[in-house]
Design a protein that fits this description.
binds pyridoxal-5'-phosphate; alpha/beta; four-stranded antiparallel sheet; single chain; Molybdopterin biosynthesis moea protein, domain 2; Aspartate Aminotransferase, domain 2; 15 strands; Aspartate Aminotransferase, domain 1; globular
Length: 448
């Protein structure tokens, strides 16, 4: 597969032109990447009016992902989530309806900020999982809620931060039957397309999704996609660039775009075929750890999520021990320690991890569990709550007050309370459990 963006920038850098354009470093090395960091000079195309090298590169990505349209983001999935919500609102309005999204409760905080600012009504889907990070909706409950609410779209976050994958195929089947859009936050799952048996949401029936290329593909931080499926409403395809440009910087990073361009080539050259052995090795490690007494969770082949309390450690303690052994995890909290792998992981690194985990002395199990969060009452609409003046208070004083921050979130940016919800004692217990000391609440003076 060709790399039109990388080729253009490399040729430009080799010409050693007098750079009387942005960026101000003028190609002079300080970090070492400046020569390749350009702006929208002649021939470089324009990200959200693409008709040259960027368009060709995005078409390569669309071919790899099997989409009708794939658009690059230089601001991660966060930008694509805002664009998805805008498109959903546009779709509702074009059908003469007010937008309503039925979303699994473990949505990333960007979803909440976007819904609040765009004034989209959100109804939440809960599930049997006790933690805040996961929410695999029950299919028959989903169907009942769709019949009751007639939402514009269902919004699912899958995989979640600890590696649980929702049944997107079954969810998409229900959505299709009811004529409801299915949007998926697939920030953690770009690589699912390139497994032996692809599990990417677009393959499983989603209309639209975001992927963070930087999370699981060999791409620079900030690299992401907005994918539109071939069966999505036509307006998603025609309005997608406009939707991204509404929220995006007007100075997108060409380093990130080159990285996305090169990722196409790495994938088409077979980086994932070569990684099969690595994923098998990781699967073996998971089995060994379970035999050894570790409790694991999640369905993702490229993630290892340890729940070490039953082995005598909190997630944070395990993360610290790994760190002392020069192994740095993605995420930890009291309950989980999450490690992420990709085709760029070395098999040796898996062996190092294995030897640290298998030599860790087993201790008395930690019996305390994470507090259970009640379903919080919506006191005022999200949009109203973020648009009213707020005050910061100690969480101990927050019971009964209305949350004003888009989200008060546990560490992976998943809402405990969203704007407009009345904080109760279960929420306060969760804030404390995750080390949150203060929160923004709507200033009472402004509530009518
Ligand atoms: C589930 C989920 N969605 C969206 C995002 C935002 O992605 P990005 O950092 O690429 O903007 C994250 C970030 O961690 C995430 O975990």
């Amino acid at each position: 597969m060709d790399t039109p963006i990388c080729d253009f920038v490399r040729e430009y850098a080799e010409k050693d032109s007098v750079r009387l354009h942005m960026p101000g470093h003028k190609g002079v090395d300080a970090l070492g990447c400046e020569r390749l960091d350009i702006t929208e000079i002649s021939g470089a195309d324009v990200l959200y009016h693409a008709n040259g090298i960027i368009k060709r590169s995005e078409e390569n990505a669309a071919k790899l992902f099997g989409t009708a349209k794939t658009i690059y983001s230089c601001e991660g999935s966060s930008l694509s989530i805002r664009a998805m919500l805008y498109l959903i609102k546009l779709y509702a309005v074009s059908n003469g309806k007010a937008p309503l999204i039925l979303s699994a409760r473990n949505a990333h905080k960007t979803f909440v900020t976007a819904a609040a600012v765009l004034d989209i009504d959100v109804q939440w889907l809960y599930s049997k999982e006790t933690g805040i990070v996961s929410c695999k909706p029950d299919i028959s409950e989903l169907e009942n809620r769709i019949s009751e609410l007639s939402p514009t779209a269902v919004y699912i976050t899958s995989p979640d931060y600890i590696g649980n994958i929702a049944d997107i195929e079954a969810i998409s089947e229900v959505c299709r039957r009811h004529g409801v859009i299915l949007a998926v936050d697939n920030a953690h799952g770009a690589y699912l397309k390139f497994l032996n048996k692809p599990q990417h949401p677009i393959d499983l029936g989603a209309d639209i999704c975001c992927d963070s290329a930087h999370k699981t593909l060999p791409a620079l931080t900030g690299a992401g996609y907005l994918h539109i499926s071939k069966k999505a409403p036509e307006m998603f395809k025609t309005q997608a660039q406009n939707a991204m440009s509404l929220f995006a910087s007007t100075s997108p990073s060409y380093l990130i775009m080159q990285s996305l361009d090169m990722t196409n080539k790495l994938i088409s050259d077979g980086i994932f075929e070569k990684a099969e052995q690595l994923f098998l090795r990781l699967g073996e490690l998971k089995s060994t750890l379970i035999e050894h007494g570790f409790e694991l969770c999640g369905d993702e082949p490229a993630k290892l999520s340890v729940m070490p309390k039953s082995y005598g450690y909190t997630g944070d303690e395990l993360s610290d021990i790994l760190y002392e052994n020069n192994i740095v995890c993605e995420f930890s909290d009291p309950d989980f320690c999450v490690l992420m792998f990709s085709p760029c992981t070395l098999e040796d690194d898996i062996s190092k991890l294995e030897s640290v985990l298998l030599t860790l002395p087993r201790r008395q199990p930690k019996l305390n569990t994470s507090p259970r969060l009640n379903r919080l009452e919506t006191a005022i609409p999200m949009n109203k709550a973020v648009m009213l003046p707020s005050v910061e208070i100690d969480v101990s004083d927050a019971v009964g007050r209305i949350s004003a921050s888009a989200t008060v979130a546990c560490p992976p940016a998943i809402p405990i309370a969203v704007c407009g919800e009345r904080i109760d004692s279960s929420a306060v217990e969760c804030f404390k459990y995750y080390g949150i000391k203060s929160c923004l609440i709507v200033d009472d003076k402004f509530i009518k």
